[in-house]
Amino acid sequence: MEFLKKILLAACLVFSSQSFAQDSKELQMAFSKSYAYEAKYQYDAAIKVIKDLYSERSYPINLRLGWLNYINKNYGNSITYYQKASAIMPSSAESLWAILSPQIALEKWVDAEKTYLSILKLEPRSATALYKLGLIYYYRKNYTLAKKYFDVALNLYPFDYHSLLMSGWTNYFLGNFNEAKILFNRVLLIYISDASAIQGLSLIK
Question: What is the pTM of this model?
Answer without folding.
Answer: 0.85
